[in-house]
Amino acid sequence: MSETNSPDIVPGTGYSHVISVDVPGRLVVISGQIALDAGGNLVGAGDLRAQTRQVFTNLEAALTAAGARWEHVVRLGYFMRDAGQVEVMRAARKEILPEGVSPAASLIEVSGLIRDDLLLEVEALAVVPLDR
């Protein structure tokens, strides 16, 4: 996997504009993760920072279950109730993501998620090399 960012596009903040993957590899598709713990309890009611940490904890658990790591992630899709709070999300994400992990990404502001008390949902795509 390699990053290819054009000098003709403003640099991304915590993401890459282009990720290239030479296959063969195993594609791992992770459904949107929300701020529920393993017991189904909401983590961080009204607190985007806490919800972001739980979402990324869930993503990491899903990656691990699939035999993948953060460095295999090629794309993240963000769905936020209030995109104006993106810096709060980025700060919390930075606490969890290893240095240098900056997959391609899209952020979409939405009017609602599956539950009214959720502020963020994140889905992921990863490519795990077959030689592992």
UniProtKB/TrEMBL annotation:
Pfam families: Ribonuc_L-PSP. SUPFAM superfamilies: YjgF-like. It comes from Actinomadura rubrisoli. This is RidA family protein. It comes from the Bacteria. InterPro entries: RutC-like_sf, YjgF/YER057c/UK114.
